[in-house]
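Quarterly update from the structural biology core.
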Amino acid sequence: MVPLRLTGGAFAVWAQLPVDHRASLAAVKSALFAAFALDSFAAYDAFVTRRLQPGESADVYLADLRRLAELFGGVPDRTLSCAFVNGLPDAARQVIRAGSRAEALDLPSVVARARAVLSDDRVATVAAATAAPPRGGGGSRGGTQDAEAVMAARVPRRPRSRRCWACGRLGHVAAGCPQGNGTGSARQEYDEELETWLRNGWLQPYNEAEDGPPRGLDGARMLGLHVRRVAGELRWSRDSAVPDPPDRVTRRSVFAWCGKLVAHLPVCGWLRPAAAWVKRRANAVTRGWDDVTTDALLQSQISHVHSRLLAADPARGQWCWTGDQAIVWIDASSIAAGVVIETPCGGVMEDA
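Predicted structure, tokenized:
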């Protein structure tokens, strides 16, 4: 049955095989591969010069890159991802490379993003073609292309599901609401509701001069903070024990651990840039969010932050601040960017 599937030069190669090899699929495949496949040098040259062809899908383009790479010994997925992006059209390549943390994307994520970008480009091209005036004298080929473009442009787009909080309708947001930007009407409704609560006695205005200082805050717990009275003033601290480092170290588990340490706290001091320092190392030694790493430096960083945190947790501060002035400090380094808001007397109100 094998020769019935072969034509032209392939049949000639089969015919030159020894008789006992002609019935062997492996022997025929090896002979055809030797006769027609690219050698490793030509395959590498084709690999580095391969570009996405007009009308070619991202998946077909990637499959051909894989085939060429296998011919000269194969390449890691990271190298394949770089070659894939490099062969895309300029506009698509710039969009993907400009995306958030594009260098950290794995190969399937890069291909998925390329599909979306190329799909948008095709829709925009079709829309531009249908908006342009007819060219030429209306030959059959031009008419067929115009008809195909019109049919493609008529394919319905997925409806937008964003809801405007000002009017409650779908398809736009409050900033572009046809009934106004929504700010005035929302504020008016809020003021009217507040007046109703005050008029019915459901909400009482608070006057510290008459009612005294707030009560019930000593020992209160809210938003992950524990408020206590220390030396006559209310101060807050972390309301939970310091979480243990992850047993299974991946980028996802490291980021989750760092989030538990700093995400909900207004003041973290040295801990905030330290968390950024740990996350930067986790990014450097992993390719995907769930790749397990045993990197010794990352383990050392995590251990150092955890032990120092157990000894002296910087997440603490004064509960209530007074005054109408503040000083904003900003700084940046290769590890992180930082902002600190403090009072004129040096009390830290918030850092980020």
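Confidence is low (pLDDT under 50) at residues 135-144, 147-160.
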